[in-house]
Amino acid sequence: MSRKLSVKHLLGIKQLTTDDIELILSTADHFKEVINRPIKKVPSLRDITIANLFFENSTRTRTSFELAERRLSADTVNFAASNSSVKKGETLIDTVNNILAMKVDMVVMRHPNPGACVFLSKHIDAKIVNAGDGAHEHPTQALLDAFSIREKHGTVKGKKIVIVGDVLHSRVALSNIFCLQKLGAEVMVCGPRTLMPRYISSLGVKVEYDLRKALEWCDVANMLRIQLERQDIKFFPTLREYTMQYGLDMDLLNSIGKEITIMHPGPINRGVEITSEVADSANSIILDQVENGVAVRMAVLYLLAGRSDD
Q1: Which residue has the higher pLDDT, 310 or 19?
Q2: CA–CA separation, 132 vs 113, rounded Å?
Q3: Are 73 and 122 found together in one domain?
Q4: Are 248 and 221 in contact, with CB atoms under 8 Å apart?
Q5: How far apart are CA 45 and CA 129, in angstroms?
């Protein structure tokens, strides 16, 4: 397997080869060991400057990237568009050029518009990491999800994984589908018909509208958050009705009669897509996902910086 990524940027899982994904996961194994040592820092990116550009609110992803950058000893510039000159009419290119004038080597960006990171990668020299673009892709979330499944089950290949909930508005769902398929998993999506994209069956996934049947089929259930902030019309009558049909509680989980690994990309709407009892149960690897996110993002930054041959 190559020790270098085939891509200059991490724009989406779609652009990665299976070898790229395997390299990121094996590099993350090394960094997971690092972050569990008493001294959690390594000097790998000591002379690299990384700008974190978040044009959308994000606590978990931004914190995870910032921690990964600090663990690698990179210098960071944090830029939140909500209190910036973007509100005064500055364009994305203006903003980034100003940051590049500060001699930044890498840009981690979250943006509400799909394709914003691809657009940026064509106009600036710095390496770009997509931290989520609209309802399009969220590649590091898919990588940390795959890493967490591999850690729990030994392999992703041949595993049956169902993604439940708001698939239509979820960048996590699309990136997960691409990533899991490249690693040899079988993927199913489950949720209300109104929250399924029209193109979904063209992605080679199974589609199921009955949560019990989906759970009986799967080894792993990834429960998505209902993205009310992305819904400009009503896609289901009430949250209560959604929860009755697609919410996961302990009674349903226990009635399946086999062990299912429960995941959630966060933040959790407790009592909507998943109860607190399920989220905090032995079946859940939600907190492992959070920890693994730092190791996976360290691996991505390290490999994109071209340090894989050091």
Answers
A1: 19
A2: 9
A3: yes
A4: yes
A5: 15
- Determine whether 2 is exposed, middle or buried from the number of CB atoms within 10 Å of its CB (0-12, 13-18, 19+): exposed
DSSP 168-225: TT-HHHHHHHHHHHHTT-EEEEES-GGGS-TTGGGGT-EEES-HHHHHHH-SEEEEPP
Share in percent of the chain as helix, strand, coil (round to 5) = 45, 15, 40
Report the candidate in 224, 242, 36 with the shortest Cα–Cα distance to residue 145.
Answer: 224
pTM above 0.90, yes or no: yes
Tell me which residue range forms the domain holding 207. 139-289
Residue 127, SS3 per DSSP: strand
168 in a structural domain? yes
**pLDDT confidence tier of residue 202, bands split at 50, 70 and 90:** very high
Q: How many CB atoms lie within 10 A of CB 179?
A: 30
**223: β partners:** 164
**Taking Cα atoms as reference points, which of 219, 162, 217, 171 lies closest to residue 191?**
162
- State whether 191 and 298 are in the same domain: no
